[in-house]
Amino acid sequence: MNLCEEILNLDRGIRFVAILSKAGKVLDSKVRSDVKGQELMPLNVLEAVGATMSRTVWSVAKSFSKYFGENLRVVFHHEKLDFVVMEIKGNIIAFTTDKDVATDSIARRIRELYKKNSELLQKG
Asked: Of 10, 43, 7, which Cα lies nearest the Cα of 25?
């Protein structure tokens, strides 16, 4: 089982997970089997904005770090789902969840799992 599959299996509410390099390249991704059609993550859009998201969002977040501590994640609340972005050990983890999922808890579990398995991602 690869890391994206392990993350997807953490909670039934996780719809999609991707691991991106800091340059925005999608290194791996996985979608929950029942997610179809318009609700699929547009990987071409994710890859197109990945590098910009990495530079811009994390730059803004780091500006506040000296006041509030390290930024752990950014959550975009959409009408149909929540989209969470995290930086861990130089890579970006992006995932979507159903609206009723506690994204903070999931993000903590993903961070632990990623750190434990980070040697598997020495691609980026």
From this structure: 43
